[in-house]
Amino acid sequence: MKKTLLTAVLLTFGYTNSQTFVNTNPENKKVILEEFTGIHCVYCPQGHAIANSIKNANPNNVFLINVHVGGYAEPTSGEPDFRTSFGTAIAGQTGLVGYPAGTVNRTAFPGLNQGALGTTAMNRGNWSNASNQTLAQSSYVNVGVQGVIDAQTRQLTVTVEVYYTGNSPISTNKLNIALLQNNTLGPQTGGNMGNNYNHQHRLVHLLTGQWGTDITTTTNGSFYTQTFNYTIPAAYNNIPAEIGEMELVAFVTETQQKIISGNGAKPTYTGLANNDAKVKSIETIGEQCTNSIGPKVTIQNNGQTPLTSLSIDYAINSGATQNYVWTGNLAPLTSAIVQLPAVSYTLLPTNTVTITIPNDDNVSNNSGAINFNKAVETQFTNITVKISTDQYGSETTWNLKNSAGTTVAQGGPYTDAGAAGVFPKPDVNLTLANDCYTFSIIDSYGDGMCCSYGNGSYQVLANGVLIPGMTGGNFGSGESKKYGVNTNLSVSAFDANSIKFYPNPTNGMITISLPEMAKVSITDLSGKLISTSTLEAGDSTLNLSDLSSGIYLINFIGDNFAKTDKIILK
Question: Total domain count for the chain?
Fold first, then answer.
């Protein structure tokens, strides 16, 4: 259970002891830029870039809080929910009328506001102007913040110091502490990175509640300190809470609106092993139809000292071990994505990547593995792309790329329609060479082509027949699928035992005529089971396209017969 506990309070007047970490000399205001954003907001990545540029120009004086809120932040099925219980109320007092919106110190800037006069929300193009104005203003209060996380218990201890170099016009101010999480990969419309957009400065919790805790003495020379203990849960909305990616922003407001100044900090850590590198995850590998790939692995430093190099061994399908030495500088509990060099391998129906790192103080996290499948293949070079959009055709685009990444065909955006329905577009017919192809379809709004406005869809066909799996419509921001064109692919049967296979040769989809219902199993010549299914009497279709080249046994067991046939796939 999440909890916030006040463990110590110290309030002193005229306090100027140099042992404090807050600055007791007059300072200008620091900027707290709250950005209201969402994963389905097409222009939000531009907002993220603008906010980051403001911070990069003033790294010690600008602090960002990304608040996922509103309709654009609402996830569809399978998407992460970055919203919090605090966002709606914070956004509700800004007067925002569009996304992305942002406030600078929750202050109204006449002529820069997005909505009605006196509101605080601004369009992204005005954030820099408002930030520069704020940075030039003197502040009557300085804020300092420090945090420590126990890596074993996940307890966060935050100490805040507030010093008044002038008098507040309000007798009671509010202290707010925001807990943020960085480097969370997820979907983002307009981000052009699929589900790998890097979300930063994401609000996950307010340690001081919706509007903060009271500071009741706000005159020149007043010093205030408070310590908070909070146990970071394993996840927020089922999204892992990575303690190594946490960030703190503390700020003082006059009410629940105007922010006077604030400060930020990255926590330090206790309870870590001396030397502990971790194979945190291996990036999912989609279906493949080439015999060379370069895996991506995320490594994490779980040790108490910076990690500057790491030897990484990896192999595919128990093939020759490859080695790559990563170099960099990972602070404790931070991660890095490492692109490993491509390695050649024999493509099987199911393939396994294994990755290991050297033994250290904790050997339980020094290896990982991930499986991926062979993509479907067709022997036909005549390809047709069929598109039927919903009423918002202008949101839909697609492209087809070969193994070199060259676009060989593309379509959209299409024309919007006036009412809900399904709107077929002209077929795109192609003649393709033997190669591995990636079909990608994108919806700029982020809701695919189905479920609300006419249930549109796409299909990719070979010789007029749907390529297995190459169809969809409910794809959110977009999806990509691979398939191969291989005119050398054929299946032949021999020792057929009076069971008819046709066509022969075929493209991997084989029709079998059975005298009665039978259980069917496919094994290799060593007897290793590959797949099982049940086929009805008469003509039934069996998909062999996931098999690699070789000789296989198909075993049929019915009530009145048992047969085994050999097939050759080449």
Answer: 4
